[in-house]
Design goal:
Helix content: 25-40%
GO molecular function: ligase activity; transferase activity
Strand content: 5-15%
CATH class of the largest domain: Alpha Beta
CATH architecture of the largest domain: Alpha-Beta Complex
Strand order of the largest sheet: 6-8-7-14-15-11-9-10
Domain Amidase: 38-474
CATH topology of the largest domain: Amidase signature (AS) enzymes
CATH superfamily of the largest domain: Amidase signature (AS) domain
Number of domains: 2
Shape: globular
Keywords: Ligase, Plasmid, Transferase
Structural class: alpha+beta
Order of helices and strands: HHEHEHEEEHEHEEHEHEHHHHEEEHEEH
Pfam families: Amidase
Distance between the termini: 41 Å
Protein name: Aspartyl/glutamyl-tRNA amidotransferase subunit A
Largest sheet: 8 strands, mixed
Amino acid sequence: MNKNVEPSVTIPADQLSVFSAAVDLAEALRAGTLSSRELLEDTFRQVDRLNPHLNAVVLQDREGARNRADAADAARVSGKPLGPLHGLPMTVKESFSVKGTVATWGRSDLSHNVATETAVAVGRMESAGAVLYGKSNVPLLLSDWQTYNAIYGTTLSPWDETRTPGGSSGGSAVALATGFSAVEMGSDIGASVRNPAHYCGIFGHKPSYGIVPLDGHLMPDVNIFPDISVAGPLARSARDLDVFLDVMAGPHGDSARGWRLSLPAPEKHRLSEFRVGLIWDSSVSEVDNPYQDLIRSFGEKLRAAGATVVDGAQPPFDERKHYEVYIRLLRAVTTARQPRDVFENALEIVPGLSEDDQSYAALLKRSTVMYHREWLAWHSRREAIRAGWAEWFGEYDLLLCPCAASTAFPLDETGTRDTRTIPINGHRVSYNDQLYWAGLASLSYLPASVAPIGFDSGGLPGGIQIIGRYLDDRTPIAFAQAIEREIGGYVPPPSALPGA
């Protein structure tokens, strides 16, 4: 065991709650000081109290979960081998296939899409002992930083019910923040793990591209695994992220015949050992001043803890060009989800667009209809950016940056994502400018963790995005663990506490 890593300690059951870290709950379950059925019933009481209003968990199988919890308790008593998640209550993002339940992706026309198999990553969680009892809400097509759809309705933030919990894994983040679940996982192509973790004050990890199987996370009319998209864990503790990723990651199917995943262990564990770049604003995506202030204050805390923090240090790419490459490749991927009429509309509009029009709407339409020859040119630009990152990581361990343009913004279901704006520093900016922060890691397939770092002047939680080099997933997670250990981490929303 590394001397810098705290050993596992069994916490007395009376000091545990539905807000405890999964690793602590799991240790108590293995020790027999807590039963899976008891924890599940505590979870159900919390769900019954808060979920009717917050609307995070939209599908439940309580009786099946009770049977599985009882079986988990019986397995422990009989001395059978126990997995790392043994007996922990779990929910999962609605879009992941779970045998016998629907996976709609928020689409009304998929309301009868009952899965015949369980997604590989979900099945791995269950095989590790998790007791899956429900599914958490998503936005339509997983394409929003709000979480609402015509089937299940709107999910609210437990920190401020007039604001978004984030998306597209918004239901997942609320489930963890409020004690509805100990184990959760989401997907991320445009910050869908990182954004709700940031807005809800919890931890999240977007893995390096390709290390977690996406089998079972496809709509029925799509049969190719998308570029950029990943599946990753959300958690109340950074210690949980390591365990969850261990369970989820690794080759599957034909790949497993010859490939093995061996992510390098982190070389550093204490904040004083790290050298990091820190940025808090961009010429592409202006960041709200209260969130900027929170990030700068966090930078000072890192320095006080002994970390080497270099303000403004980032790879030497042009921010606007980076954003354009990301949007062109991102929206080329998501074209597969679009109805035929949207594609045909783009075909009509693109020839008339001005070459100077670099708006998000213009980039979206060009990406929708570009030739494969064009895609290869944009992909080549991505590879040049990836090379720049690799060189940069020769000098720095991590890049720390915003997760979005602000802390959670007010709910707004008017118009479409393409036309909406959000309030930033006293004026309105495009809803989609903040994709810049998602693209920093996603475009180049990099791992990125999110850790809560405190609250802005309005009392809303904010997180820091921790970007590491490709396949070095354990380093940003180790940094998140150091933040949690040396500065602080998850705090339950006051509205979720008993007696609230």
